[in-house]
Design brief:
CATH architecture: Alpha-Beta Barrel
Structural class: alpha/beta
Number of strands: 9
Oligomer: single chain
Order of helices and strands: HEHHEHEHEHHEHEEHHEEH
Shape: globular
Number of helices: 11
Bound molecules: iron/sulfur cluster
Helix content: 25-40%
Largest sheet: 7 strands, parallel
CATH class: Alpha Beta
CATH topology: TIM Barrel
Length: 310
């Protein structure tokens, strides 16, 4: 059996009562946009953003959620034998709409056959107290996860990538969500411009003040047509090597509580959109290198949290 030095998300799902079920996420487009694109916070979006690359349903804006779910779950049932589904509002900012619209969309998703929960990806500045009340209510009857993009705890970095939110805004939302009955997932990116291992470690430690259930981490990758591509082409941005990424990933996971499920440890883009680095498409290669890194260090997820492995 392959050694696992981190807590895979599947184990967290098993703890949630889905032990003998094949639960898979069905990515959805809820028709949202983003305040960093429509001019409310900024224009142009994050320098690396191209929703076509990280959201396979980016073109489904006008298709009803129930139909997206029916088609997505049928595909997964046929191709990978999945039998339960999490409706995943992945495209753009999944809480960026009036509360009435959010309630209609989330309830429509939860009413679909074999759907056991919803997962909502969003920005920390797009979560209102009313949204939190709604998620708390929904979580009484379903598995609900709110996924908040932080990327880095450094405001200087967030400015550089045009995130148009600060660490304090993330902190305020985490404070509001704490103990409200639904799961929290934090999203980080390694290899952001101007950052190195000391930034990754500090970002991981900055999360210690909250209880959250899962994490997604991936290397910054350059996608065709983005502002980051221009920085890459001019030599201003140099992507991480796989060794640098794996070392940074181990640094972060050592500082993440052992109870936190790792939903993602790498990410890529479709071949026709990915500019660099090519290695990020090799998920097994990253996983094997990570396990070897932990083995070499004699460490594992949670071994360097401030109060030891939790
Ligand atoms: S917050 Fe997300 S959707 Fe909005 S610009 Fe940034 S990456 Fe794109």
């Amino acid at each position: 059996m392959r050694a696992a030095y981190h807590k895979p998300y599947a184990r967290l799902l098993a703890e949630r009562g889905f032990a003998n079920l094949r639960v898979r996420k069905v990515p959805l487009h809820g028709g949202f946009t983003c305040p960093n694109l429509d001019g409310t916070k900024a224009r142009g979006g994050c320098t690396y953003c191209d929703n076509r690359s990280f959201s396979p349903v980016a073109g489904s804006r006008t298709v009803p959620v129930s139909r997206q779910l029916a088609e997505g779950s049928a595909f997964m049932r046929d191709h990978i034998g999945a039998d339960r589904f999490i409706a995943y509002f992945q495209a753009f900012s999944g809480t960026y709409a009036p509360i009435e619209r959010l309630e209609t969309l989330y309830r429509e998703a939860l009413a679909a056959p074999s759907v056991v929960g919803i997962s909502i990806g969003t920005r920390p500045d797009c979560v209102t107290p009313a949204t939190i009340d709604l998620l708390e209510e929904l979580s009484r009857g379903a598995f609900v996860t709110l996924e908040l993009g932080l990327q880095s705890a450094f405001d200087e970095t967030l400015r550089r990538i045009n995130r148009a939110h600060t660490f304090d805004e993330f902190a305020a939302t985490m404070d509001l969500c704490a103990g409200r009955g639904f799961d929290l997932c934090v999203h980080l990116i390694l290899g952001l411009p101007g950052e190195g291992p000391e930034h990754y470690r500090a970002t991981a430690l900055a999360l210690e003040r909250w209880r959250y259930q899962s994490i997604k981490i991936h290397p910054l990758h350059v996608v065709r047509g983005t502002r980051l591509e221009a920085e890459y082409a001019s030599g201003k941005y140099v992507p991480l090597t796989r060794d640098e990424y794996v070392s940074g990933l181990a640094d972060v996971l050592e500082r993440i509580p052992a109870t936190v499920g790792v939903q993602r440890f790498t990410a890529d883009a479709p071949l026709n959109l990915l500019v660099a680095p090519a290695w990020c498409r090799d998920k097994n290669g990253v996983l094997n290198a990570l396990n070897l890194e932990f083995q070499g260090r004699g460490s594992r997820q949670g071994s360097r949290t401030r109060d030891g492995a939790r």
